[in-house]
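Section 3.1 - Work completed
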Amino acid sequence: MIKRNLLVMGLAVLLSACGFQLRGTGTNALSIKELDVSARDAYGQVVTDLKNTLSNSGVHVYTGAQYKLFLAREDESQRTASYAGSGNSAEYELTTVVKYEILGTKNVLLLDDNVQSTKTYVHDGNNLIGSDQEAEQIRKEIRSDLVQKLIARLQQLSPQRLDELQAKADAAARAQADAEAAAQRIRDETPQQSPIEIPSK
């Protein structure tokens, strides 16, 4: 019994040294505790899976949170990676790119970027049903990969960092408003040139 416990402990230490973490027990926890998450495709699988993952990670996801993650676009492309000798089979490469935005108070854009995932599968012309099933499985893996990449991006953002981005955006907005107001004052104070009157004959 003692030997078995020592073996389990030894394996745990070895795995942690290699960087292995059990899902949900990692040290890279999200420091953001609340977030508004939405997408152009409100019922898309990526945003649905992302909301579930965030909620399971202890993040309060609700409409009206100060900071918002908006999935602006999701583009899927497919290309032929290679052909089999028989001509009936081909290897396809699927790529999905998700463009996202982090919005602050009054929906001010704080930052935007994208995440991408690419995977390949073999399409067998003699087994269309099996090929379609494999393609759908690949799409599920891509969605899972995209969600994990989005989570990794969010792990890099702390509430303090978001506050800094918000302050910077607010300062830029105030500077622009002041510049526009100054330009308007100059226009208001500049005498308007009277139209040239042409003497009548």
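Second construct:
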Amino acid sequence: MTTCLGFAAHQANAPLTPWRFERRALRDDDVAIAIDYCGVCHSDLHYVNNDWGSTRYSCVPGHEIVGRVTAVGSAVTRYAVGDSVAVGCMVDSCQQCTPCLEHQEQACSSMTPTYNGMDRQTGQVTLGGYAESIVVREAFVLRVPPALDPRFTGPLLCAGITVWTPLRRHGVGAGMKVAVVGLGGLGHMGVKLAAALGAEVTVITTSPGKADDARALGAHHVLLSTDPKAMQGAANAFDFILDTIPTRHNLNPYLMLLGRNGKLVLVGAIEPLEPIHGALLMVNSRSIAGSLIGGIEDTQALLDFCAEHNVLPQCEMIGIQDINTAFERLKANDVKYRFVIDMASLQDVNLG
């Protein structure tokens, strides 16, 4: 075992503070990673505050991890010391069930989250990437392509894969008309990736002030959902709608925008929604689906695609000392569009 310095919350609604803890000794199929950067996800804030009632304290958040291999177990074949690697939302699964065999590990009933999960072998709580280092099973380590800037790679492992999976699953590409509802951390990646795939992209927003940002990100059009005439004019216009709104909302106005066999996919809201009018699904044979992150194979494909097409999230770099301020800004939606922690800042932490 090795001692590791990170930042942890020890109870609900408490600030993150420096904390020393133990990382496990290398198993045969493990990779040890020195963490260079870790993205800040809105779910980190939810877990720290126990908003979902499932947090195990002490909690070290972080599942958008980028770093360098420092050691490998005896059975590791895909990575060597010095390799640039990444770790996303998962660190283990059974590797034997149907979802795992189909490379959809996120659907495994034994999937182990990178933090706030339970190690399948020891039963210990998993601790995430707001830390100096991490030890991860080789099958859940991703290779960072040389063309991808590691500073901005982290958010691809959560926000990126969350929107990439439904875009690919539903065949988004050239000739398709795609709408992205909401322009936050998920939405801005949805715009960038849909445009890079060749789709004609429209951002649907309540904020006229976001029009310039939307076009700068690659959107071809902006539709104000608060403009009844514009919404009526866009009826039946889209093949695919990616709904990134993170809270309870009304889907009916967006369903009206789908053409024949159109699909709306939810990737943001994980709570009850407003009632849906059944006739809106029957007309045009519309459908609603949901999607949650993606498998390891799909995530590697995303990293490779982003390297080839120069697609990166827009990030604001912070030091780990500023994480509590960053959380307050997250609450206020005051970030364009993701925070990333430069973990070199841990060297300046005063443990008192």
